[in-house]
């Protein structure tokens, strides 16, 4: 990165432009660009190598701001985006938090908040690796907020793009709880021609059966006791857009028949209504259940099953894409550090190995919940093995760990790609294949500490005793490495033999 970063500030009002220009003058006196319209924003980004973008989302219509944010992130993946949103826009805030946006601030601007955002961005740029060797790992941008660099996820993203080109066909999303089925449904909507219309989610398992019908189809005045006026249902509200039916397997058979009519005839009748209303709604359904089993048991209509399964889409569980765990973890650490105004946690290698070895039955949601829990409970800078919940360590067996595979995942490169004799932050350290112990009782912490000591000694040997370079190899702060060397009494051990 150049010594002075280039900042682009977008805002339609001159007084706010002046306010931020004064704040930025010290950090980037000659490299601040101002734009006041979407067209000027895109033109500047295409002509100037911008490092930091302050993006006022009120530049765009409310229903389009997220799609524009996604487009900018996809087109300029290296750009640090600081999104500015009105402070009363809770829904928009949640959308921002679900993405990989670097930081967000609220409008009206607060000087302390803007300065904090700028400081974090400048710090990020200062430590951003510039190594372009074959070992450097280029992060792929999130796909509409969904993070995944594994082949199975990239194939999923390609399939979503193809599905989105057809705005009519129904889609059935299969996946375990916590895999992100609603995020996939939103991605289908945002990538389609329906993106400027409503995306309407309905959790069929969360709404009681006696209320779900009126919630979906609406009702007319006098349809039942308490129906004092007409009410529009979710299906009609999604007209022109997308209706997302989560946990479709929990819908009772009588409602399944009414939904089938919506899919077949493109019309519906509200509760108490006598006239069918035409509707242009794309239905995307999702389930973690075995629908085929429910069909065989007679609790799910076979004709509805085939109507929903025009385009089946399967989301893999997290345990089947472990290579994505480090980047998901990094994104969640960034997100919750930013949200709580604290420093990002450091994850030592032994903790990372434990996380990679866990089965993650709750999938991506469980991983994010863990990061959120740690962000609330722990005030330190580095998460230790003993800080992890017991369930994560209950089945962790160091003897059964494939350390060569773990090394490949953590480093982000193939072991065979390492450039010999070259020391850089991406140099791969060969890990011991197994941890050995004698028969009898095993001290788990002692084994992990011994393994950690071996890694430190190996890193110090590779770097010729250069603690700064060794810390880079181990992804540790230099002070943390010095503390570990002192605590473990390792001084000089890398010079032996």
TrEMBL record:
One of its GO terms (biological process) is regulation of DNA-templated transcription. PROSITE patterns: RESPONSE_REGULATORY, SIGMA54_INTERACT_1, SIGMA54_INTERACT_2, SIGMA54_INTERACT_4. Gene3D superfamilies: 1.10.8.60, 3.40.50.2300, Homeodomain-like, P-loop containing nucleotide triphosphate hydrolases. Pfam families: AAA_lid_14, HTH_8, Sigma54_activat. Residues 146-376 form the Sigma-54 factor interaction domain. It comes from the Bacteria. Residues 6-122 form the Response regulatory domain. CDD domains: AAA. GO terms for molecular function: ATP binding; sequence-specific DNA binding. Keywords: ATP-binding, DNA-binding, Nucleotide-binding, Transcription, Transcription regulation. SUPFAM superfamilies: CheY-like, Homeodomain-like, P-loop containing nucleoside triphosphate hydrolases. This is CheY-like receiver, AAA-type ATPase and DNA-binding domain-containing response regulator. It comes from Desulfocapsa sulfexigens (strain DSM 10523 / SB164P1).
